[in-house]
Amino acid sequence: MTLENLALIREIAASVDDPELPHVTIGDLGMVRSVEHEDGRIRVTLTPTYIGCPATEEILADVRSALAAADIDADVEMVMSPAWTTDWITEAGRAKLRAAGIAPPAPAGDQPTVMLDLPVACPRCSSRRTRRISDFGATACKAPYVCDACREPFESFKAL
Ligand SMILES: [Zn+2]
């Protein structure tokens, strides 16, 4: 295996779609941590997004089958440390989230240390006149909002 092949393996792993976010790949979310040789094996490590996101097993299975389809025999594992942060979402990933009507999270560095509920910009009209409808989203990762300017409901990623 050459370095070039490792880059190809990373590319295949990164192109797997996130099961919960249509058109957004796990590469867009910054989940692919490393692709390396270890004791004659290829080891791919991924970092799950939000703890408690039920999609973790599905993502592992999807990456394994994408690699198997390319005839690549690799160990695919989740690593929990360092923990994933929304800062790892790529610019392309943020653009795709907006296009899918999901407000991308503000960079975690911009978050106040005291958790203030800053208004989230509406992904459709960019208005900040939005409010959270409830604390419980469809998944552990997203919170439901409604925009008072265009009256559209949308989901926002919780910044981590
Ligand atoms: Zn709006």
Task: Please tag this protein with its features.
single chain; about 160 residues; alpha/beta; GMP Synthetase, Chain A, domain 3; four-stranded mixed sheet; three-stranded mixed sheet; 3 helices; about 20% helix; elongated; binds zinc ion
Note down, in words, how this protein is organized:
The chain is of the alpha/beta class and 160 residues long. It folds into 2 domains: 3-84, GMP Synthetase, Chain A, domain 3, CATH 3.30.300.130; 102-157, no CATH class. It is 22% helix and 21% strand. The protein has 3 helices and 7 strands. The chain has helices at 3-14, 56-69, 91-99; strands spanning 32-38, 41-46, 74-78, 102-103, 130-132, 142-147, 153-157. The strands form 2 sheets. A 4-stranded mixed beta sheet has the order 4-7-6-5. The protein has a 3-stranded mixed beta sheet with strand order 1-2-3. A hairpin with a 2-residue loop joins β1 and β2. α1 (3-14) packs across α2 (56-69). It is elongated, with a radius of gyration of 17 Å. The model is unreliable at 111-116 (pLDDT under 50). Zinc ion (ZN) is lined by residues 122, 124-125, 127, 147, 149-150, 152.
